[in-house]
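Lay summary

Proteins are chains of building blocks that fold into shapes. Our project writes down both the chain and a compact code for its shape. Here are two examples, one after the other.
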Amino acid sequence: GSEDPPVAATVFFGANDAALLGRSNERQHVPILEYKENLRKIVCHLK
């Protein structure tokens, strides 16, 4: 059905968002273009 979009939403950014290549948490790393696309998808989902 057609649902109204949320009035407000919170997107939490944390340590997983700062994972760098070459570090012990490298398996969590997301390339910047993929990261930007993921944010775009979150925003589109909330609309």
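And here is the second example, written the same way.
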Amino acid sequence: MVHARHELALLETLKNQNQLTLSLDGWTDNSGNSIYTLMALKGSKKKYFVDVLDLHAKRHTADNIFSAIKSSLKSKQIGFDKICALVTDSPSVMIKLCRIVNEENPHILKIHCTLHVFNLMAKQISAHPSTDSIVKANKILVNYFMTAGFWREHLTTWQKANGIKHGLQTLC
């Protein structure tokens, strides 16, 4: 019931919107399922969660992803005429997807997310053998501060006082 109300509110909101930027990001969950999220952005402030595209049963081809996007947008009554740009990461499948979208909708700008590029660079740098000792030392340091009660409490207090929302964590 809550989801249905949210869905109706989303449809009503997006019905009158134009110049939307469509954002697509995908990942594989812990069970190996391939999931893509589809968001509509309006300016820098308004973000609308459109759909989760479950593609675990399909090959991750640009055609299959495009088909899933078209189906999702159609079910939400969002035409490609309302979309002005598509933001994706930059693997070859996404580059081809942007090309396919642009063939049918030449008015849509193709934008590659630079944060994904930086993330890939950071992963490659941290995976290089010369950084092994640095990564290992940082993991030890983060684990120490997160498990030592006294320091964890001081770190949490300092974060709150300085308006820092994210804490220490090891990502690799």
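What can we say about the second shape? Strands lie at 20-28, 34-42, 46-54, 83-88, 109-112.
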